[in-house]
Specification:
The protein is α+β, with helices and mostly antiparallel strands and 276 residues long. Helix content is 26%, strand content 25%.
């Protein structure tokens, strides 16, 4: 998005380039997709207990998605770093794994935290949401991590309204997380969403004029996937193996990830993945 100058020194934002605004009908179709994602995540959270494998959780999620007549967004996705297409319908990231954890034979243990990301396309439109789940009894540090990361998402939902710059929301999220002694990941950001999982604009969870992501103004009918990712230790992350998928914290501290698909309304925000 192009920024233009004004005589009073305040930057004037152009309408975000490449952003596809949604009709009322499209927003309701996205809400239907979001309801399915909400049901899947709820079922996975109920099953996520010590001893269950991430592959078993993935199998149940795929059954639910297929039975609903939807298509999983993640399965078969490729990226330049990866040696193979993503094999799961869920991303199941455990402990120091931030995102893109591959479901498999790993069995959850008491004290783990499990970040689950789920996306579907239903009737041509996408829903995308994530939450981090405590497994059994977790440490106070882990509880704090989950509370703060979810709190950052809830803060963003409250702060979204027409006319605001995204930078103001991102700065508020970052300030809250850092005040709590935790660290916002810089390397991965949220995104626009609609018929495609990834649309413009990029939606960071922190703000710096040097980050290379254009600021934008929130306008009604814009739909965003907002997804704060927070680490106990350093904000720095890296690929955890040579497959090119799973991303882990550099210091192997715990990480958490929460996400909702959110529509900007005339007066605020409307969460499309909260089950309503």
């Amino acid at each position: 998005m192009k920024l233009g100058g004004r005589k009073d020194g305040v930057e004037k934002l152009a309408r975000p380039q490449g952003v596809i605004l949604k009709s009322d009908r499209e927003i309701e179709l996205m809400r239907a997709a979001g309801r399915l994602v909400y049901r899947v995540l709820g079922r996975v959270e109920a099953l996520a207990v010590p001893g269950v494998s991430t592959g078993e959780l993935n199998a149940e999620a795929e059954r639910m998605i297929r039975e609903a007549g939807a298509t999983p967004l993640f399965k078969g996705v490729t990226n330049p770093q990866a040696k193979f297409p993503f094999p799961g319908v869920l991303c199941t990231s455990v402990n120091e794994e931030l995102v893109h954890g591959i479901p498999g034979n790993r069995r959850l243990a008491d004290g783990d935290v499990l970040s689950v990301d789920c996306g579907v396309r239903l009737a041509g439109y996408c829903g995308d949401s994530a939450r981090t789940m405590p497994i059994g009894r977790v440490s106070d540090e882990a509880k704090h991590l989950l509370e703060v990361t979810e709190g950052a998402l809830n803060l963003a939902i409250r702060e979204v309204r027409p006319g605001r710059r995204w930078s103001a929301v991102a700065e508020a999220m970052q300030a809250y997380v850092e005040t709590e002694g935790l660290h916002v990941v810089r390397d991965f950001v949220g995104h626009g969403i609609g018929r495609d999982m990834h649309e413009e604009p990029k939606v960071p969870n922190y703000w710096s004029r040097r980050q290379g992501v254009a600021d934008f103004e929130l306008v009604p009918r814009m739909v965003l996937a907002v997804e704060p990712m927070v680490n106990v230790g350093t904000h720095r992350v890296m690929y955890g193996d040579d497959a090119g998928w799973v991303v882990v914290t550099r210091d192997h501290s715990f990480a958490a990830h929460y996400e909702h698909t959110i529509a900007v309304t005339a007066t605020g925000s409307d969460v499309l993945t909260d089950g309503r």
